[in-house]
Amino acid sequence: MRNVLAMDHPVETAHRDQGPALTVRKASMRDIHALLKLINGYAAKGIMLPRTEFEMAEHIRDFTVAFSEGQLMGCGALHFYTSTSGEVRSLAVDPDAKSRGIRGIGRTIVEELEREATDCGLHSIFAFTYVTGFFEKLGFQQVERGELPLKAWKDCLRCPKFACCDETAVVKYLVDEPVHQSHEGQTLPGLIHLPVIRRAL
To answer: Positive or negative CA dihedral for 79, 43, 141, 144?
Structure first.
């Protein structure tokens, strides 16, 4: 897992309905068990990939977390794939957040991950999602998943839905003319197309 820039200080946000404030910050090792409970709760429903304590420890520097009154309300991660692109992943919000009067958690986390990506000099961020409308409201656009770099050779290969993926790929460009790189580091003018994987009959 690549190291990323951390926020200098936690960011507190207030919402239009004057509900409880959120504290948004980079995750630390002490957050692992709360993150596992949230993420694996969704994984049990087939919505997210399950994570182990080892995986969370290895990837903890990717995560941004949102807390309210000492309770984890949401999380998201920015994972670098090339020197110019990264994935927004493991985006999860506590199912009880709305009943607690807390709204805008997902948006707040994605906006913070986008700020982090910009600070790190990325040209684009992408995601695989079931909630396309949510990402479109934040400026993402739908693309063919074959246009996204390296993803199919990493996490997707271990996903039980690899052969019948029902998620939508979305991308947001952070610069006017994004540059994409091949596996060999060659700069290309357009998006990278992954080879088509054909299954033996």
So the answer is: positive
